[in-house]
Structures are given as C-alpha cells and as structure tokens.
Write a structure and sequence with these properties.
single chain, about 260 residues, alpha+beta, Isoleucyl-tRNA Synthetase, domain 2, nine-stranded mixed β-sheet, three-stranded antiparallel β-sheet, 8 helices, about 30% helix, binds ligand A2H, leucine--tRNA ligase
Amino acid sequence: EAVTPQEYTALKLKVKEWAPEAEAAVKGKIPEGSDVFFVPATLRPETMYGQTCCFVGPKITYGVFKVSEKEYFVVTDRAARNMGYQSIFGKDNFGKVEKVAELVGSACVGTLVDAPISVHTEGIRILPMESVLPTKGTGVVTSVPSDSPDDYATVMDLVKKAEYYKIKKEWAELEIIPVIKTPSYGNLTAKFLVEKLKISSPKDTKQLEEAKELAYKEGYYQGIMVAGDFAGEKVEDAKPKVRKQLIDAGLGFAYSE
Ligand code: A2H
C-alpha cells in the first residue's frame, strides 16, 4: 500500500450489452432505462485512446452501486466505500453506499462496453486478468496494450489461450494503435519491452515489474503524443489536459486512495 495518496482518474465505461450470466445477476435489480458503468482507475489518462478491452479479476466479487436514479457503477465494495467518502455518490450521501447487486468477475467476461475516447468506438469487451488486485483502485483495469506491459502480456496470453479462458479470440484481438512515441522504444512501448525482456506470459512478474518501470520513465519524460487531441505534445503536458477533458465531459472523475 502506497504511503502517499494515489490520485487516479476513474473512467466510465457504459455497458452496451451484458454477458448472459451478468445479465441474469442484475435482472430486476436495476430500473429499466438505467446506465451501468464499469469504472476502471488509471494513472495514465493520456493513453485512453488506445483502450482495447477492460479487465476484471475473474474471482473478484464486484458490487453494482447506485450513483443516482439512473446511474450505477460496477466496482469493488472497498472502492465504493472510498467513493462514498469522496462524495462521488452525491454530497447528501456522504459516507453512504447503496449496493443493488453483486457480480463475480468471471460472469462479466464478454460484456460489451463503451470506452470513452478509445479509437474502438464500436466498444470493447470485459476480459479476465488474474493479476488484478482486489485491494487497489476499483478492481477494474482498462487495458492499453500499446503502453502497459502488463496489459500487453495479458492480451497476448488471452489470444493464445482463448479456449482455456472461454473467450472469443477476436475479443482480445482489437487493433493496438500507437498512442505515444519515445526515442528508445518507438511507438508501441509495451510490445517493445515485452519482446526485449523476453516476457512470455503475465506470470513473468519480475521482468514485468522492470518493464513497467522502464515504460513509465521513458513514456513520462521522453514521450510525445501521437494520438488524440494533443498529438505532437509532450506526455507530461498532455496528461493533465486529457484528464481535464475526460472529467469536464462527464466521462470520468477524480478518485483517490
Ligand atoms: B494503468 P499503482 Cl497505459 N490491480 O492504467 C492491478 N493493476 C491495477 C489495479 C488493480 N486493482 N488498478 C489499477 N491498476 C493498473 C493504464 C496504464 C497503467 C498504462 C501503463 C501503466 C499503468 C492502462 N492500464 O500502470 O500501483 C492501472 O493501469 C502501471 C503501474 O496504483 C493503473 O494505471 O501505481 C495502475 O495499475 C495503478 O497502479
């Protein structure tokens, strides 16, 4: 657990089509015409153009929490409690949360969601990631395989073992577009580092840790945006601008822990 508070950007990924098992679990518990959002927490809002899927821990139990009459969030109980104290469920509800349903991660796999600012405007799928920690962020992790070594290694594994994971291969195979270019790693940092460090699976945790470190330093200090409204600008400058755009547009909000 970090000692200094972590300031995340929480992103709202609206459900377009439920996986059957998840649909059965929420049926009758959410009023007709409501919007339900999976809410990943990220430290890299400037990379959100490259989202290709969104991860949940298959064994993690999530709650569906009421935000307002027609709005619900899927996050861990722990994150909902934190959100309650950050007035995310309304100022009048300080410290209060209302859970209307529970969903195990595996039941959500295959759900189609709308990912704000992603180039994949047709939507992206909820997919399983074994290494999602229930104790960090919201327990939901949006996947940007161009810039996150963890995400890249997981997506490659899902493609390779689609049958084992009981997913459709094409759900994991959305195009990985360049979002940031750096002098050392080109325009697909995560792919470059995963290959360079010979990472063959998400279980290569030691090398992934190193890749993450390298990707973060190079991306943040040397990175130039090649996608989105701030293409051509330094990552350092674009990061707060993308974050502000997302929040101002109601597509995301500040979440800290
Ligand atoms: B980041 P920190 Cl492009 N379990 O977002 C595991 N990982 C989690 C998590 C959880 N419960 N909650 C959030 N995360 C991930 C983008 C990204 C991220 C990129 C590159 C690096 C990167 C797209 N995924 O993180 O321990 C989320 O993934 C590298 C660490 O609080 C979040 O940002 O520092 C980051 O880890 C938060 O990790």
